[in-house]
Structures are given as structure tokens and as C-alpha cells.
Amino acid sequence: MNTIKIALLGAGTVGSGVVRTLAMNADTITGRSGTHIEITKILVRDAKKHRPEAEGIALTDNFDEILNDTEISVVVEVMGGLTPAKDYMLRAMAAGKHVVTANKDVIAEHLAELYAAAAENNVDFLYEASVGGGIPIIKPLKECLTANSISEIMGVVNGTTNYMLTKMTEKHVSYDAVLRRAQEKGYAEANPSADVDGLDAARKAAILASLAFDTVIGFEDVSVEGISHITEDDIEYGLNLGYVIKLLAVGRNTEEGIDVRVHPVFLPKTHPLASVNGVFNAIFVRGNVLGDAMFYGRGAGSLPTASAVVADIIEIARDIVSGTTGRMKYKIGERKKLCPVEKTKSSYYLRLVVADEPGVLGEIATTFGRAGVSLKSVIQARWTETGDAEIVAVTHVVTHAAASAAVEALEALPVVREVRSLIRVADGQEDLL
Amino acid sequence: MNTIKIALLGAGTVGSGVVRTLAMNADTITGRSGTHIEITKILVRDAKKHRPEAEGIALTDNFDEILNDTEISVVVEVMGGLTPAKDYMLRAMAAGKHVVTANKDVIAEHLAELYAAAAENNVDFLYEASVGGGIPIIKPLKECLTANSISEIMGVVNGTTNYMLTKMTEKHVSYDAVLRRAQEKGYAEANPSADVDGLDAARKAAILASLAFDTVIGFEDVSVEGISHITEDDIEYGLNLGYVIKLLAVGRNTEEGIDVRVHPVFLPKTHPLASVNGVFNAIFVRGNVLGDAMFYGRGAGSLPTASAVVADIIEIARDIVSGTTGRMKYKIGERKKLCPVEKTKSSYYLRLVVADEPGVLGEIATTFGRAGVSLKSVIQARWTETGDAEIVAVTHVVTHAAASAAVEALEALPVVREVRSLIRVADGQEDLL
Question: How many domains does chain A divide into?
Fold first, then answer.
């Protein structure tokens, strides 16, 4: 039996998971690949640092050593970031090496270019770990849902924010308290912006939408709203209305164009994504043949992410063994029209603080009506500490423009002290029976 | 662009879904396949019967017409049943045709033989629709979870029984009433045995366990218990204890051997499978790298099943276009030791009717203890219509042998009128955060 030699770029969380996985499941992986798989070089920043997990593997801080090693047939990029990761991948492909990556930044911005380079150089290029950690979602989209025209894809794709929202929901604690706890547990960074402002989720939204709708969607095409304005009061009101809050990556193929966004959403408790808790991720897909489907699992972490990376390595090994590398020439379709955020549609939850006067509920309902927004419900929820009244309204499906106009009109009313929250509510859930 | 010609064996529910899918998504399917896909012949029992859904496609009642048609490169078996489906598939492969099937009966009993025939004849052989309808699970097991050693696979894989148990849970109706309703809605057959006795689920359990543990598991290796003894009272008690009931296909790789069974299980409400309701299916997998994952969607029906069948056809079309058919020579590993049902382990829920006498709870607890079964809880639940007391006990994890011995010892007690129910409870759920 032959041996396939591979190199890792990066020895961080994911890289060490890949080393560990190939060691711990060596026999089954060899059986499934039809060949031995051996990591012969790892690119690191400091080749002199002792790395017990990479015992017996040559470390180098010089990418050319890997590039020029003709024995290495697969380069596994797990260093992250745009630069120099993208450049290294392109150079590896140009040198005839197959590439596996876990890099959401590069895939969210340069998938079309990487596909073209893979096709041109006749090499395999796989990136399952770039979205959803260990959850198989890229291959299902590329190979299992191919009979479908996909109308919607929605995902809980950021474990940090999902952990935070889950804790806020279960323990009724504030955003600030739960952020501190997430930072203590190592789930959130000291500067948590990439997670809590939805930027990480937006990159994954771009990747999912590109594949689901076969079009180039970049990070900058995603309309993004984070979770830092979510309060425990909104979560509590939502629960009473039958909703659970999630930060969702949403992609829709609408008549107004492709609509891709990241923002908090109130989901009905019965929605499959509503019970995706803690650091788990899930991606929900609606196809015109399959109907609704969901893929659930661990969206981050050393081993879960390595599960996806190593599966990609095994796929390439199988292709090498059967002499069928480069068989699929994937490409992403041309750019399609994007749906501007004002034209996107949703139900909305609003929380207002108003003067506690007779007739105020009627005045508010009338103002919604004049803005073209019809209401599912409007209730006076409670009195505030200052003796004002708090009102919670849920609208029918309206455009974002109409919802924004309603907010503006409400804010102009003398009785309205403040529009505290405007949160989308998942509409149009299919009957689950 | 070339055209790939395919034949369907069968024009029933799944067959007509395949015809419809290829028509309704023709352009995207052509784009993804790199070739046109055309159904040129359909094998039916009565070629004279009018079939508006197959307008323009030649019908035949003679399989040889398909076998000898050298233009047909893919045979899609959607007739179901063991005979003659298996024979037709083998003959199609021998004639150099690629085969797609949705046939759980054949796959559950003859997967190894079909793999061998595909390898020998250098053809593609795919069967995604045989488990979980439209849910991608076969390809994920074969290609996405390959870095893992799988310890457990559990699935809600029968829509009829899941519909029934969901309705019993939501509406507090009896088994008989819900069976009638399922029959009226066409979810259950006039003779419902294949569904309610767990036989359909057992075939899917055999397939899932074969792939998860890489060993030959046949239908006859699966220990099976259906749902006809489940009462609304048990469901109600379960809910109060925090459990939801599901008919599960379970496969485990244990120290005592491979353990494959189908039976009702009380799942904690927080388990991902617990919220899989109605006709939806889901398969939960635990791997030693990935951790827990779940695949959810529509497990039956014309279009959902066609989604999987057509994805398989597209995969073969891609292989034909790139000249890489027959590239994977799959085989199933040798038979492994099976875990006898007595040695399987679980927590158990028991419901007993006992004489309403002082000290009876103690006597029962002592009897459990003597049988080597320790209890998590034992409560007197209520009085029966005859003035006896009803007791509900939940055990810690014990062998099935110990649980059975406890039942026998309990039944021998003079105070015990009847052991009404013995239902497994899912133990060992991983911390979901």
C-alpha cells in the first residue's frame, strides 16, 4: 500500500486536531482511503517552538519548503486569515498540489477564483470545514441536494453568540454578564466583535448563499446586525409569545433578488432551529423537491473541525488512489441581482415605551396602519420603572422599508418615549405535519 | 452537450416523483450534471394503463427491453420489494449499466452482494433514498464522517409511527384512534404491521448499522419491538418525567459486540431527536472526532424520496461526463460479533399495577434491588379504576437481562397485579451545554 504525503499550513486549534485525528483513527482512515496518509511537514511561525502534539513531524517556517517538496501531494490550509493563506493555496494548486482548507475568510471572498485555479491545475479543492465546523453541509449542498432548486437557507452558524443567547434565555441574565462568562470560558475573544457583531456569521452566510443559489456572494453583500442590543426583557417577551431568539445567517432566493443577511430572529419554538442550543450549529435548507431539511452538529472546536478537514483529505486520497483527481470542475455562477435590505420581508417584533395615557394603544395601532404595517398583535406588556407603559407589537409580513417607516412615524408621536427594539420574527414556517 | 438516457423500473409514488423532479428542475439539473438527463423507458406492470405523468416516455412491461437497450446507461430501481428488484439490478450491472435504487428491502439484505457486483462490473451503484427518504445520510456516512469511528447511530426513520406517536403525545388519544386516523390520511396501510411492528425501521437500522460500523448487518440481526403496546398513559407519565417517546432505530458499537435494535424509547425532551415530529425523520450520529451530529428532513413521500434518487442520478451523470464511473470500489467489512439483546444496556421505565397496601413501594424497590437493578425513581402515580395503585419506576442503566429478571421477580410478587409497561429510556446523553 502506498502512502500519500500531506503538509499542514498552521498548527493551531484545527491543525492540532487534524494531527490528533489522523493518529487516533489511523487504521479506519487507512481502510477507508485505500492508502496511508502521512503528515510530513507543518508550516508554523516559529519552527523552534516545541510542539508535543506534532512529535516526529518536520516543522518549517518557510512555505517554499512545502511548495518545492514534490513528495507532498496535498496541502491542508488551517492557518486562517486572508493573507498569506489565499496566496499559499493558489501557489500550492499551481504546483499541482490538491488543497483542503477550513478558511471561511478566504472562501467567503475568493471561492470563484479558487475554483478556477483548481480547475485550471486539475487538482481537488475542498473546504467542508469553512462553515459549520464538523457538520457536513458543503458536500450535501454540492452533491446531495442537487435535484433541488433551493429557496431558503438559514443557519445557526456562530457558536459563541448561540451560547450567549442560549444562556440569556435559560438563565435570564444580561448581555454583558453572559459576554463576560463566554470570555471566561474561552468561547468569546477579548475583542468579541467578530462574533457578537455577526461578522463571522456573515462570512458563513456568504458561503452558504453562494452554494445554495449558485452565484457569487461576497462578505460585503451580506446585510449584518449583531446581538449586542438584545436584552433579557426582549427574550422574556419573546418566550411568552412562543418565540426563541437565534442569531441566524439567512439566504433567500426572492423575486426581488438574492437576499442574504445576518441578524437576530425570533423563531417559533417548534421550528427545528429553535432547539439548537449552546455551541451547537445547524443549517436549515428548503428545497423545492426535498422540502425542509436540517444539518446539526458541533460548529467549532479542534476535533469537530478536524472531522471535516480529514474527511476532505480522505476524499482526495481516494481520488488519488483511483486516479480521478480533478474530476469535478466546479464553478460558481455569475453574480445575480441582490435584494436590497429595504425590500427584504419579515414579520417584526417591536417594543415601545409610551406615556401611560388612555387611547395610546389605539394611536399606536393607527400609526402602524398608516405606515402600511398590519399587526398580528399589540399588547401593553407592563409599566416601566418611570411609570411609562411598555408595549409589544408583532407585525404581519412587511418589507423592511415599511417596518422602518413605521418606527420613524412611531418615534415622531408625542406619546412615544422610545422604540426600544425591532427584531425580525420568522414568518412562513411550513406546516410540520 | 450530450444526453444520458436512463430507465426507471417502476412508476409508483417514487417513480412519478423522479419523472416530475427531472422535468420541473430540468435546467438546474442539466447545469449541475453537465449533460442532459432523459428518461427513455419505464418498466411498468401494465404498459397499456394511461399515465399522464409519464407523457412521452415509452412504457414497457418487459425488463429485457431495458436491459438490451444499449443507449440506456443508468437503471433506476423504484419498484420496491426483494423480487424481482434485486435480480433486475444485478442483471443491469452485469450489462454495464449504473444502478440507483430506493429499495430498503434489498439494501438491508444484499448490500454486500450488490457492492461486489458493482465493483466487478465497474459501474456506479447508489442507494441514498433507501433510508430517510430525502435526507442525505448514506453519502454523509460514506464520505463526510470518514474521519470518525462511530459509536452510536439512532434514528427516527419511520414516518408512520412517528406521526402516530406525535399525535398520541399532542392530542392524548389512544393507539387505536390514532392508527385509524393515520389509515384515513394514507400514512398507514390497511395492514399496518410493517410500520407499527417496527419491520420497516428494522430494515433501515440494518442499513445504517452496516455503514456506521462497516460490517454486514441483516434484517434478521435486528432485535425489533413495535409501538402497538404503547398507551396514552405511558406517554403522559413520560411527559411528566421529562421524556418524549419515539420509535428509534438504534445501532451501537459496544464491548459486547454490535448492538442493533428497533424499539420505542423515552428520550429527554432536550435531545435533538425529541423534537422530530410528525412525518419528519432524523438520524443522529455520534463519532469520536465530530461528537454528535443530526440529519433531519422528510423521510418519505414522492418528491422528498425523488430528491435523493435524482441526486444519485446526477452523481452518476457527473461521473459519466468526467469519465470516472466505477471509481469507488465500496465493500462492507466482514461480519462482526453481535451483542445479544440480553446484554444490551439501557435505563428502563416500568409501569406496574399493585395492591394498594402499606409497604408495597418498599417491597417493590427491594425486589428491583435483589434483581440487581438500581432505581433512579419510583413513584406511586395514581389509583386505577379498580382501586389498585399504579407505580412508575425508572431504573439506572442495566442490562436487558437484568431488567427482564426484575420484571419476572415483580410479577411473582403477590402484591403485583401486572407489569403493564417496560420501555427503554435513553441514557448517556452527552452534555448539550
Answer: 3
Phi, psi torsion values for A38, nearest 5 degrees = -130, 130
Q: Residues A77, A89: contact at Cβ < 8 Å?
A: yes
Verify that A194 and A220 share a domain, yes or no: yes
Q: Are residues B128 and B14 in the same domain?
A: yes
Do A268 and A380 reside in the same domain of the chain? no
Q: Which of B33, B147, B304 sits opposite A290 (nearest CB)?
A: B304
CA distance to partner chain B, nearest, from residue A321 (Å): 9
Which one of B31, B135, B315 has the shortest CB-CB distance to A293?
A: B135
Question: In this structure, is residue B241 part of a structural domain?
Answer: yes
Cβ–Cβ of A289/B314 closer than 8 Å?
Answer: no
Sheet holding A36-43, edge to edge: A58-60, A36-43, A3-9, A72-77, A98-101, A125-126
ipTM, two decimals? 0.95
Given an 8 Å threshold on Cβ–Cβ distance, is B136 in contact with A147? no
The grid cell for B343 is 446484554
Supply the range of the domain harboring residue A349: 341-425
Disruptive mutation site among A20, A145, A146 for chain B (greatest number of B CBs within 10 Å): A146
The three cell numbers locating residue B351 = 409501569
My answer on whether B126 and B148 are in the same domain is: no
Comparing CB atoms, the residue among B139, B275, B310 nearest residue A147 is B310
Cα distance between residue B76 and residue B316, in whole Å: 11
Interchain pair A296, B293: CB under 8 A = yes
Question: Binding site, residues of A?
Answer: 9-16, 104, 189
Confidence tier at B432 by pLDDT (50, 70, 90): very low
Same domain? B247 vs B270: yes
**Quick check: is B63 in a domain?**
yes
Active site residues of B: 204
Grid cell digits, residue B181: 386516523
Please name the residue of chain A whose CA is at the shortest distance from the CA of residue B332. Answer: A32
Question: Is residue B408 a part of any domain in this protein?
Answer: yes
Nearest CA in chain B to A327: B322
Is A146 in contact with B29 (CB distance < 8 Å)?
Answer: yes
Tens-digit pLDDT profile for residues A322-369 = 999 999 999 999 999 999 999 999 999 999 999 999 899 999 999 999
Distance from CA of B50 to the nearest CA of A (A): 25
Type and span of the H or E element at B11: none
CATH at B214: 3.30.360.10
Q: What is the CATH number of the domain that holds B102?
A: 3.40.50.720
Is B139 inside a domain boundary? Answer: no
Given a cut of 60, whether residue B21 has pLDDT beyond it is yes
CB B128 within 8 A of CB A293: no
Q: Distance, in angstroms, between A19 CA and closest chain B CA?
A: 12
Q: Which residues of A touch B292 (CB under 8 A)?
A: 297-298
One domain, residues A291 and A311: no
Give per-residue pLDDT as tens, A68-113: 999 999 999 999 999 999 999 999 999 999 999 999 999 999 999 9
User: Is B29's CB within 8 Å of A318's CB?
Assistant: no
Query: Nearest residue of A to residue B330 by CA position?
Result: A32
CATH of residue B387: 3.30.70.260
> Which residues of chain B make contact with A304, given a CB cutoff of 8 A?
289-291
Q: Which of B25, B304, B433 sits opposite A163 (nearest CB)?
A: B433
CA pair distance A404, A397, nearest whole angstrom:
13
Binding residues of B: 9-16, 104, 189
* A118: Cβ contacts below 8 Å, ≥ 6 apart: A93, A99, A124, A125, A326, A329, A330
Separation in Å, CA A367 to CA A358, A375, A403, A405, A428: 16, 11, 11, 10, 25
Chain B nearest-CA residue for A279: B433
Beta strands A125-126 and A223-224, pairing class: unpaired
B6 within 8 A of B313, measured Cβ to Cβ: yes
Q: Which residues of A are catalytic?
A: 204
Query: Do B268 and B219 share a structural domain?
Result: yes
Residues A270 and A196 in one domain: yes
